[in-house]
């Protein structure tokens, strides 16, 4: 993977993680680095799911792929927040 691929993965991770965090109601007690990591993982897994479903490459904006990625990020943010809350 080239440096441009790493940078774009981080940027997409920030966007997907932030959107996923906005979808989850209430206050989340996780840091920005966790949000970025969840966003990167959600972007990669969401792209794989969209590709398996055949909706990854469409004409124009891939809205279904984005929705899958944001939903996965929201689930990841909520799960990590609940795990951190349960520890306290």
List keywords for this structure.
single chain; 0% strand; transmembrane helix; mainly alpha; cell membrane; 88 residues
Put the structure in a nutshell.
The protein has 88 residues and is mainly alpha-helical. It is 77% helix and 0% strand.
Please outline the major beta sheet. none
Number of helices: 3
Rg computed from alpha carbons, rounded to a whole number of angstroms = 14 Å
Total count of domains: 1
**Mean pLDDT across every amino acid position:** 86
Q: Which regions contain 5 or more consecutive residues with pLDDT less than 50?
A: none
- Sheet-strand content, in percent, reads under 5%
Shape: globular
**Element-level helix/strand string:** HHH
Helix content: over 70%
What structural class is derived from the secondary structure elements? Answer: mainly alpha
Could you give the count of β-strands? 0
Q: What's the N-to-C terminus distance?
A: 39 Å
Report on this structure.
- There is one protein chain.
- The chain has about 90 residues and is mostly helical.
- It has one domain.
- It has 3 helices and no strands.
- The chain has helices at about 5-25, 30-55, 65-85.
- Helix 1 (about 5-25) crosses helix 2 (about 30-55) and helix 1 packs across helix 3 (about 65-85).
- The longest helix is centred in the C-terminal third of the chain and has 25 residues, at about 65-85.
């Amino acid at each position: 993977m080239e440096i441009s691929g790493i940078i774009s993965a981080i940027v997409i991770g920030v966007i997907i993680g932030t959107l996923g965090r906005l979808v989850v109601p209430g206050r989340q007690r996780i840091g920005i680095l966790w949000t970025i990591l969840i966003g990167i993982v959600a972007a990669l897994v969401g792209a794989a799911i969209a590709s398996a479903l055949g909706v990854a490459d469409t004409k124009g904006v891939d809205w279904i792929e984005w929705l899958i990625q944001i939903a996965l990020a929201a689930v990841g943010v909520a799960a990590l927040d609940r795990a951190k809350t349960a520890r306290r």
